[in-house]
Amino acid sequence: MRRADFAGLVASGLLKDVEEIVVGAYLSIHPGASRPEAYHWLRYEDPDPVAQLADGVRRLVAGGASFDAEAVDKAFAKASETGLLN
User: Where are the domains of the chain?
Assistant: First the structure.
């Protein structure tokens, strides 16, 4: 993904889509966890949420999480349509 200005990333809805995918994967392997716990786990207060999401994906994959394939496909399609993929 090429660098995109943050406002454009938010406006496209792609950031929210990817957040939902990552938080959903976290919740799938942490029964009883809450959405706030998932965001805390991501250290989402960090000023670079895209990097935090990428790090979260790496940690979730290492922990055996699976991701909603349909949601991932939709996020990739949106990124492609908005020119955010190289």
Answer: 6-81
